[in-house]
């Protein structure tokens, strides 16, 4: 028997590279995926995860219908109506009795990879009016948002390296050959790095591990983990001291250069060399090379963010871009302009600085530990204590959208217990019954990606080339499924006392609000096209956006529309109160003494860092057989010298202990980690009962975040310290 097979385009949602895929479909099954050679951005690139799209899509462990907890305490399959009835019966009553803070919201990483996750959570938060908001950002890039907020006045104004045109790339704590890039959307990142080398450019990588990316570099500096802010401060010091700074056209919009020089006076290459374990001559050379390059871009990611001085390091990355005149110029680091961004402010340029609203930190604080908010969020590391600790404002109900904090956040055991024992009600929107969703009273499963449309609201604004692409669902929604956008819309109605209203009411409200905000004519709402609420909202954003596009135009170009290379956007993007780039913002200046004290710290003899594997994706892709196994395993990488000193044998189980806890994993002896550093990947630990992920459970691995107790944070951003953790390692008895 043979089915007629067809192909359909689908943008890959599995990482930030946003590759265009061509799916082969037989009936209602995806039987193959290859790179879409006509895609205007990815030009046929695909990685092993994208190639496994079909397997991931058809995973038999994916939930098909909602689960609702019965009176016996067990989860059982239920209808959509029953699931939303239950939510409507519980959440508004809890808010009524205990106030809006009683509901916490957790937003996980895949929200930035779905249309629903981009369009509806802001409306959910507005409906709930809770300050108990926790997201993956405080396990990830919040330091960058804070540094951008302080420097530019807009937490979302994040410059990206101009990969295709730069002459010199300094890459810090990022491994795009495995991760495919982050806060820098660049399909075929590896090919773009090779092209940089081919056109005579240079690549420098700073990473305690000799990663696949480091192996591609002209120079690899194996820094001691956690010391990047010191190294970057010393580089800035060299630029200022040797008068190598040349901010160029930015000068008119810069504030605080002299103050910066004074603040960094102590951070000489000699002063930081021991802490970084990088000699002073190398640090000086790194600074001089950066200044000498015709164009250059400094780019830092996970290894520069999820560390004790994450905000300072993120700030210094852009300080270096600014001082060398590379910020906002072709070949340097530029601000993308996506098709759905708000249209640029009118003619700010030429008129000198225009004051903006500015960026405020710590407008409120978390209830238990008093952690300051950042960008309206509280540290995810503090979620468990907000659920457990009695008192007014305690979280009694939790709405979890696409997140698995039991594995992805510090001290999963504690959070696991808090979810099990201290919540009155929990909802998860998740395709899997996993370590977190198993605690929910209602689980709402989105359809597989083949049955969902795709648009990258988030990643287009971090893309190395301005472009726009939209793909409709390649396969119609299967009977009994609900589109994730409709799930979100119904959830919003259910928690806000409007249960039973049409989900389109949520979209209509969002459209009306956006039109009013933009000062556009009301009639525009009637002109929007699209088959669904999300499509009409996309159409509106495109029309109001900087290129004045429409949904129809996107549909007419299934492989994308090229919007040109990145262009300078200063001063139009600046939103600081001064209207300038504030080089030494007060919160940063106040945190520098802490960095100065780190100069005197005696380094821990052994510290732990993370790593990612090309065929992984945080905590949720270990259930796809074709992606598991091989080198995608949860081993502790140890340098041979450390292994000899500690008596560790390759393949044998070792015990890893830190201030926050202890776990066991097999040792993998390799000189790709520097001595004094061990590495364990995250997202493992699939050994808890009550989950439904058979493949993952067969090779559970250990949860690295059990080494943490959640108290170690970058203070300015509330981001958990997940790298450079002091540990001891011993052979397991
Ligand atoms: N030690 C250590 N810990 C880390 C990190 C690290 O480097 N080291 N990295 C951190 C980083 S950068 C991040 S972003 C976080 C990620 O941590 P989380 O935000 O918790 O994300 P994931 O672990 O990817 O889990 C995603 C959840 O979403 C579900 N999901 C998948 N697709 C969809 C979908 O289409 N819709 C919905 N509704 N749900 C979906 C999955 O089943 C899973 O339950 O982990 C952090 N944790
Ligand atoms: N295959 C795959 N791709 C992914 C993901 C995945 O899980 N798997 N996750 C996605 C997500 S959510 C994100 S946020 C991105 C992250 O994208 P990347 O930032 O590229 O992530 P990693 O591959 O973890 O690279 C971080 C590097 O930092 C190094 N490092 C650790 N500590 C330090 C330090 O103190 N200093 C320096 N200089 N380096 C240090 C590590 O050795 C590691 O090589 O990847 C995304 N893409
Ligand atoms: S690089 Fe990322 S977006 Fe491209 S195919 Fe792989 S997982 Fe998908
Ligand atoms: Mo992330």
UniProtKB/TrEMBL annotation:
<keyword id="KW-0479">Metal-binding</keyword>
<dbReference type="GO" id="GO:0051539">
    <property type="term" value="F:4 iron, 4 sulfur cluster binding"/>
</dbReference>
<feature type="domain" description="4Fe-4S Mo/W bis-MGD-type">
    <location>
        <begin position="5"/>
        <end position="61"/>
    </location>
</feature>
<dbReference type="InterPro" id="IPR006657">
    <property type="entry name" value="MoPterin_dinucl-bd_dom"/>
</dbReference>
<protein>
    <submittedName>
        <fullName>Molybdopterin-dependent oxidoreductase</fullName>
    </submittedName>
</protein>
<dbReference type="Pfam" id="PF01568">
    <property type="entry name" value="Molydop_binding"/>
</dbReference>
<dbReference type="GO" id="GO:0046872">
    <property type="term" value="F:metal ion binding"/>
</dbReference>
<dbReference type="InterPro" id="IPR050123">
    <property type="entry name" value="Prok_molybdopt-oxidoreductase"/>
</dbReference>
<dbReference type="Pfam" id="PF04879">
    <property type="entry name" value="Molybdop_Fe4S4"/>
</dbReference>
<dbReference type="Pfam" id="PF00384">
    <property type="entry name" value="Molybdopterin"/>
</dbReference>
<keyword id="KW-0560">Oxidoreductase</keyword>
<dbReference type="GO" id="GO:0016491">
    <property type="term" value="F:oxidoreductase activity"/>
</dbReference>
<dbReference type="GO" id="GO:0016020">
    <property type="term" value="C:membrane"/>
</dbReference>
<keyword id="KW-0411">Iron-sulfur</keyword>
<dbReference type="InterPro" id="IPR006656">
    <property type="entry name" value="Mopterin_OxRdtase"/>
</dbReference>
<dbReference type="GO" id="GO:0043546">
    <property type="term" value="F:molybdopterin cofactor binding"/>
</dbReference>
<keyword id="KW-0408">Iron</keyword>
<dbReference type="InterPro" id="IPR009010">
    <property type="entry name" value="Asp_de-COase-like_dom_sf"/>
</dbReference>
<keyword id="KW-0004">4Fe-4S</keyword>
<dbReference type="InterPro" id="IPR006963">
    <property type="entry name" value="Mopterin_OxRdtase_4Fe-4S_dom"/>
</dbReference>
């Amino acid at each position: 028997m043979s089915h007629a097979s067809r192909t359909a385009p689908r943008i890959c949602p599995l990482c930030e590279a946003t590759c265009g895929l061509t799916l082969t479909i037989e009936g209602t099954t995806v039987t193959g995926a290859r790179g879409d050679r006509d895609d205007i951005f990815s030009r046929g690139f695909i990685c092993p995860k994208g190639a496994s799209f079909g397997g991931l899509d058809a995973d038999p462990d994916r939930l098909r219908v909602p689960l609702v907890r019965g009176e016996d305490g067990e989860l059982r399959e239920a209808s959509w109506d029953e699931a939303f009835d239950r939510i409507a019966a519980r959440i508004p009553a809890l808010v009524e009795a205990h106030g809006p803070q009683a509901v916490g919201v957790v937003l996980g990483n895949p929200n930035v990879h779905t249309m629903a996750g981009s369009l509806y959570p802001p409306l959910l938060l507005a409906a709930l009016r809770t300050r108990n908001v926790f997201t993956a950002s405080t396990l990830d890039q919040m330091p960058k948002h804070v540094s951008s907020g302080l420097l530019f006045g807009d937490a979302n104004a994040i410059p990206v390296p101009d990969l295709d045109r730069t002459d010199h790339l300094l890459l810090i704590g990022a491994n795009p050959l495995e991760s495919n890039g982050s806060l820098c959307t660049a399909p075929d990142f590896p090919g773009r790095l090779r092209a940089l080398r081919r056109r005579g450019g240079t690549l420098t990588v700073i990473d305690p591990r000799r990663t696949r990316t480091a192996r591609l570099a002209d120079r690899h500096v194996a820094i001691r983990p956690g010391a990047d802010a010191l190294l970057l401060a010393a580089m800035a010091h060299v630029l200022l001291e040797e008068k190598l700074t040349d901010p160029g056209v930015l000068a008119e919009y810069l504030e605080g250069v002299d103050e910066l020089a004074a603040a960094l006076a102590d951070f000489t290459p000699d002063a930081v060399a021991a802490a970084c374990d990088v000699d002073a001559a190398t640090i000086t050379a790194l600074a001089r090379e950066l200044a000498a390059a015709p164009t250059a871009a400094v780019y830092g990611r996970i290894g520069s963010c999820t560390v004790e001085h994450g905000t300072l390091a993120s700030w210094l990355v852009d300080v270096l871009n600014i001082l060398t005149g590379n910020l906002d110029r072709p070949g340097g680091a530029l601000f993308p302009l996506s098709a759905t961004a708000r249209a640029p402010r009118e003619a700010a340029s030429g008129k000198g600085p225009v004051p903006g609203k500015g960026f405020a930190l710590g407008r409120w604080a978390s209830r238990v530990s008093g952690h300051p908010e950042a960008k309206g969020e509280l540290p995810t590391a503090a979620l468990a204590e907000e659920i457990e600790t009695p008192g007014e404002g305690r979280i009694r109900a939790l709405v979890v959208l696409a997140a698995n904090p039991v594995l992805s956040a510090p001290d999963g055991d504690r959070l696991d217990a808090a979810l099990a024992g201290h919540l009155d009600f929990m909802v998860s929107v998740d395709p899997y019954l996993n370590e977190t969703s198993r605690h929910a009273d209602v689980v709402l499963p989105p359809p597989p990606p083949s049955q969902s449309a795709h648009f990258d609201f988030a990643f287009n604004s971090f893309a190395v080339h301005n472009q726009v692409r939209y793909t409709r669902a390649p396969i119609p929604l299967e009977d009994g499924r609900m589109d994730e956008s409709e799930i979100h819309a119904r959830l919003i109605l259910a928690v806000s006392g409007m249960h039973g209203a049409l989900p389109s009411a949520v979209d209509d409200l969002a459209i009306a609000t956006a039109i009013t905000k933009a000062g556009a004519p009301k009639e525009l709402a009637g002109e929007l096209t699209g088959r669904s609420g999300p499509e009409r909202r996309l159409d509106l954003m495109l029309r109001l956006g900087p290129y004045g596009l429409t949904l129809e135009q996107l549909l007419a170009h299934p492989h994308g529309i090229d919007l040109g290379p990145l262009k300078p956007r200063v001063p139009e993007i600046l939103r600081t109160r001064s209207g300038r780039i504030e080089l030494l913002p007060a919160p940063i200046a106040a945190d520098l003494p802490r960095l100065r004290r780190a100069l005197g710290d005696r380094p821990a003899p052994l510290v732990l860092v993370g790593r990612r594997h090309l065929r992984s994706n945080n905590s949720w892709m270990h259930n796809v057989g074709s992606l598991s196994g091989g080198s995608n395993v949860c081993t502790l990488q140890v340098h041979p010298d450390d292994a000899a000193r500690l008596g560790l044998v390759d393949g044998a189980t070792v015990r890893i202990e830190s201030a926050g806890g202890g776990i066991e994993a097999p040792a993998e002896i390799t000189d790709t980690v520097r001595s004094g550093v061990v590495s364990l990947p995250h997202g493992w630990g699939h050994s808890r009962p009550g989950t439904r992920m058979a493949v993952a459970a067969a090779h559970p691995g250990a949860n690295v975040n059990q080494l943490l107790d959640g108290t170690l944070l970058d203070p300015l951003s509330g981001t958990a310290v997940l790298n450079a953790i002091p540990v001891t390692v011993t052979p397991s008895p």
